[in-house]
Write a structure and sequence with these properties.
The complex is a heterodimer of chains A (81) and B (193). Chain A has two helices and four strands, in the order E-H-E-H-E-E. Chain A is α+β, with helices and mostly antiparallel strands and 81 residues long. Chain A has a four-stranded mixed sheet with strand order 1-2-4-3, with helices on one face. In chain A, 30% of the residues are buried. Chain B is an alpha/beta fold and 193 residues long. Chain B has one domain: Hypothetical Protein Ychn, Chain: A (3-Layer(aba) Sandwich). Chain B contains seven helices and five strands; from the N terminus they run αβαβαααβαβαβ. In chain B, helix 2 runs parallel beside helix 5. Chain B is elongated. Classes of the chains: A alpha+beta (81), B alpha/beta (193). Chain A: Pfam families: TusA. Chain A: Belongs to the sulfur carrier protein TusA family. Chain A: Keywords: Transferase.
């Protein structure tokens, strides 16, 4: 997989279900600087829709990409402000 | 022409520059006060949690912690049985009711037998653990960490003969219906669970 961006941090939320992937993503994003990218690795299939909804409804974050990789769902979130 | 503003009508003298300047300042003040009233665009949600069974503890806590992740201002007002969710000792011992629950795979006559609620609760706890779903305690800690205002209804605290120290650290006590209503009036979303 080739991403067009550099990953700053990876958050492993494999095995955790709603609302943990979103809530932990929010906490991890808070610790990043503007422009940095968080990779979120989840096994919760609901995280595809939830992370998208969260990013759309939250200021200062942008969902760059979502990838389904077997049983694992990867989300790339950039802190934009 | 009916107006309560001091603006000039079509057939009256045009306003002096000084009067116009005064009017502009007046309007700017009005806009500023309206902006303060509306807030900075941050959404607000108030949930009233009235149920204290194991299953009913989850929806308010999941919604509250997720809303906090959106950066919303969140208040959960716990009243009647909902108060047990915030009670440090009782929250770890909430039970699922097997009786009168059509989702239970057993008839009511069987569900009413002693120990059935405990068994049903154990089954659910096991499922929750296997599914990687957070525990009630984890969701409470998470909500408090994220700045959710978990409120314990003072009237219910006294009714149930609880002590203010019985609740998790960070829980707001000494609040009543008027506080809850005030939050609801300011909220974009109000839910009764």
């Amino acid at each position: 997989m080739s991403e067009a961006f550099d990953i700053t941090e990876t958050l492993d939320v494999k095995g955790a279900s709603c609302p943990m992937p979103v809530v932990k993503t929010k906490s991890a994003i808070d610790d990043l600087a503007e422009g940095e990218v968080l990779e979120v690795v989840a096994t919760d299939s609901g995280s595809m829709s939830d992370l998208k909804g969260w990013a759309a409804g939250t200021d200062g974050v942008e969902l760059l990409e979502q990838v389904e990789d077997g049983d694992v769902y990867k989300h790339y979130v950039q802190k934009t402000a | 022409m009916s107006t309560d503003t001091p603006s000039a009508g079509a057939d009256s003298e045009p306003m002096s520059e000084e009067a116009l300047q005064e009017r502009i300042e007046e309007l700017e003040e009005q806009v500023a006060s309206l902006e303060t009233e509306v807030g900075d665009g941050q959404k607000k949600m108030t949930i009233v949690a009235t149920q204290g069974t194991f299953d009913m503890a989850y929806p308010p806590l999941i919604l509250a912690s997720t809303a906090a992740a959106f950066g919303w201002d969140v208040v959960v007002f716990h009243t009647f049985w909902g108060l047990d969710i915030l009670h440090e000792e009782k929250s770890s011992d909430l039970k699922l009711s097997a009786v009168g629950n059509p989702n239970m795979p057993m008839p009511n006559a069987l569900a009413a037998l002693p120990g059935m609620d405990r068994m049903a609760t154990r089954m659910m706890e096991k499922r929750i653990d296997e599914n990687g779903t957070a525990t009630i305690e984890e969701l409470i800690e998470l909500s408090l960490d994220q700045g959710v205002d978990l409120q314990a209804c003072q009237m219910t605290i006294e009714l149930m003969e609880y002590d203010e120290d019985d609740f998790y650290d960070g829980v707001t006590t000494g609040v009543g219906a008027a506080t809850a209503l005030q939050h609801m009036a300011e909220s974009d979303i109000q839910l009764l669970v």
